[in-house]
Design a protein that fits this description.
This protein has a domain of 40 residues. It is mainly α. The model has no long low-confidence stretch (mean pLDDT 85). 56% of the residues lie in helices and 0% in strands.
């Protein structure tokens, strides 16, 4: 029987712009790149969603 609780939420790695990367392995750096690319995609999708909503609102109120 294992005493490790695998159901606990895993802590996501924190990344700060400009942080020291010299102590990170290639695997850790690659993981950070993947994480940041996913975050960029998420932000771009939200920006697109908001732009579409704004455009729809502008079209609704045009005379």
């Amino acid at each position: 029987m294992s005493f490790v609780d695998d159901d606990r939420p895993q802590k996501k790695p924190n990344h700060e712009i400009g942080m020291d990367l010299s102590m990170m392995s290639v695997d850790e750096l690659t993981s950070r790149i993947d994480m940041l690319k996913a975050e960029i995609s998420r932000i771009e999708a939200e920006a697109q969603r908001k732009a579409s909503g704004r455009k729809a609102a502008e079209n609704l109120f045009k005379s």
